[in-house]
UniProtKB/TrEMBL annotation:
This is Glycine dehydrogenase (decarboxylating). Residues 626-653 form a coiled coil. Residues 782-903 form the Glycine dehydrogenase C-terminal domain. GO terms for cellular component: cytosol; glycine cleavage complex. Its EC number is 1.4.4.2. It comes from the Bacteria. Residues 19-447, 454-736 form the Glycine cleavage system P-protein N-terminal domain. It comes from Streptomyces clavuligerus. The gene is gcsP. The glycine cleavage system is composed of four proteins: P, T, L and H. The modification N6-(pyridoxal phosphate)lysine is found at residue 709. The lineage of its organism: Bacteria, Bacillati, Actinomycetota, Actinomycetes, Kitasatosporales.
Amino acid sequence: MTAHRTPLSELERGTPFEQRHIGPDAEAQAKMLAQVGYGSLDELTAAAVPDVIKSAEALGLPEARTEAEVLAELRGLADRNTVLTPMIGLGYYGTFTPPVILRNVMENPAWYTAYTPYQPEISQGRLEALLNFQTMVAELTGLPTSGASLLDEGTAAAEAMALSRRIGKVRNGVFLVDSDVLPQTLAVIGTRAEPTGVEVVTADLSQGIPDSVAERGVFGVLLQYPGASGAIRDLRPVIEQAHALGAVVTVAADLLALTLLTSPGELGADIAVGTTQRFGVPMGFGGPHAGYMAVRDTFARSLPGRLVGVSVDADGDKAYRLALQTREQHIRREKATSNICTAQVLLAVMAGMYAVHHGPEGLRTIARRTHRYASLLAAGLTAGGVELVHGSYFDTLTARVPGRAAEVVAAAREGGVNLHLVDDSHVSLACDETTTRAALTTVWAAFGVEADIEALDATVADTLPAALLREDEYLHHPVFHQHRSETAMLRYLRRLADRDYALDRGMIPLGSCTMKLNATTEMEPVTWPEFGQIHPFAPVDQAAGYLTLIRELEERLAEVTGYDKVSLQPNAGSQGELAGLLAVRAYHRANGDEQRTVCLIPSSAHGTNAASAVMAGMKVVVVKTADDGEIDVDDLRAKIEKHRAELAVLMITYPSTHGVFEEHVADICATVHEAGGQVYVDGANLNALVGLAKPGKFGGDVSHLNLHKTFCIPHGGGGPGVGPVAVREHLAPYLPNHPLQPTAGPRTGVGPISAAPWGSAGILPISWSYVRLMGGAGLKRATQVAVLAANYIAKRLEPHYPVLYTGPAGLVAHECIVDLRPLSKATGVTVDDIAKRLIDYGFHAPTMSFPVAGTLMIEPTESENLQEIDRFCAAMIAIRQEVEKVASGEWPAEDNPLRNAPHTAASLGGEWEHPYTRQEAVFPAGVSTADKYWPPVRRIDGAFGDRNLVCSCPPLDEYGS
């Protein structure tokens, strides 16, 4: 008998991560290929992908590494970051994430792998959590309607500017910003204002609005409360003056300060914006964090972003949903004032749960402690002869030290504390939830002061102005009082998670959204303190590991896409679109082609494309879609010829929004270039291209990428996301930059797109890890299996549902659209009926009615195994057979399992008067009685919720029911 010998080097490698990421193994892939009619992955993608766009060479990426090796490499990068005590402030603060929230929300796939709640019946847990967030924001700001979160404070302020212009009484005029607004907010506003023709005027408003500004007309005013310098002012006089001028007033407010200070609503503000970062969300070198916006009732129906509302289900029971179809960019498109189509749900849930965990008393205690430290710090400095610029403050002090500010900041840094260098003679310093007595001693020493904290504590009074102390109560709802013990909090979080459907429960086959595996190895480093506790404006030498990770990810994304330069700053796909279009605009203007303002967009494009174009100062011209789903090339050529002198850019999605590889894409790009335009390739469907084709090589000049789609950042129930922008060399000088961090972009850039220099840097380790774990060959195979899975589903379902569009050889890309319109016309069964019936079978529905009304767009991704894909196909086929029973009259059109879906456990009780059985209702073919997912509510009445808009926690008398 010959002894078996396996080389140690082979054994040490273990199972490649690729085999964990890609669901179908070799045997399953062979079965799927046989169904589709091809002998190998290479043969399939050779037939599916047009020759004109194929990449000849392999991806030039480092070889794949094991999970242990990648974690070790990340640990090495993390160790190169230096975590100092953060006293920089400027909207970012140290905070303690309660461990029960860290473990059971941030690190829990039941929360972070969920999708946006477009199927509200199976999103009741996260919708309730978002309603908590909205209630928290509304009550702390004193304004009745809050949205479900925005991207960050800077973009929230820019959205407020756009909202003020849209709803205000003053048709022209300027947007007036107080000089004590956060500098990064002012910079983001400037980036957003210039392309749309808004003039931003900055002035010191501490003594009111200057006559010279008032005479010009003012449509909106932005104030900071407390100010960036730390100053607390009574804003009522300037708000009254602004209202007399017809202006809409926005107050950017610190929520923790609002637990002690009079609310913006009571001061007279129309809009409040800000961030909820310091409510338990790590700084993460700038993000992701949940921004907020709250408005007066009269503005509720114009609120940008998402809004959770209370409605009722088919039984009249309370249920939650997204209200008012607030994704206005998909409805209003080029008339939209915002391109925001996502939120920061995971972070909003964390911030809302921070308030649930602490309650109003706990929040007040944290705020009082923070202010107390600031008061003692101030007293020690003034006793030592240091001049403070302001006498009223919450947590931030500004000290005047003529000529020696840099020396003070350097001394504090040497002692382990980061302060903010304002200029040669001013230093600002901020206290927070994590500030310690030792930090105060270090700061005093840096200023050359000695102080006794115990003696000061015995004699120094707090310094909040009495006239601005908050007198009204807030957070009345029982949810902010019932979960004080960890046991209660743990059970509350579990109860909400159980009401939801996420990737940890089953397949989410959403077309265009790419719900693939978010591996635990990729997620783990996000919560390491060396990544989570770095301030975005810390000196760059303290973030050496972060900067290496960012540079390597930028370079690897450039290699994958075929572009020359990548910026990771945009913190959502919509923001990446805007950044790319602003780069195109700046390029044309630099060449003297200011007349080039026309943006051609296919009619099938994502709505954000049109909204982003308008926000970038462009005029949208729509290009028709041909019957086969591709761009109507004749119409495109006609539009190019008509607008040749004004053509700025063509925006296309590739593969197309219809899920096919268009064969004419290279010719289309060449035609646009010949006319002097640029080509923007929307990266929404990059999951079908990685390793097979590069947009930057087949004609694209610029693309945004969705790291939360192709590169594994989880969707988090509707955020966070990252939307980097990738460009060819000639557009690189016009990428985003940042006034507080010169290394974050080119000197000639268009300005910041997000408040933080590198956007949502805290989650970039996820995508870095994914690329490192897969390597070039693994990424290519992932793409090939994604294409295989989509074509397998298309072939399985085609005998039962027509597949709407196919490309070469009758193949689709990484998703397919099944057409339900003939069925609906013949039987009355709608796309909603089938989507809700899938819930009874234990599935989240595919994308409904986009890009074609009455269809389902299905994307299985590469991560679902054959068993789950077959389970989905079996459910769709069984539902088709149920539709036949409606068509034959066996089941009435108005009373059948599809029309009544989804069925809850409660709906089974009492008398059963339906023409189908209880068993058919809740345990249709293939559904296990042991593993059944029970939806918490029946089908929700959306119209009722819109007519009766309630966007905060229901009153106490409804809570018990």
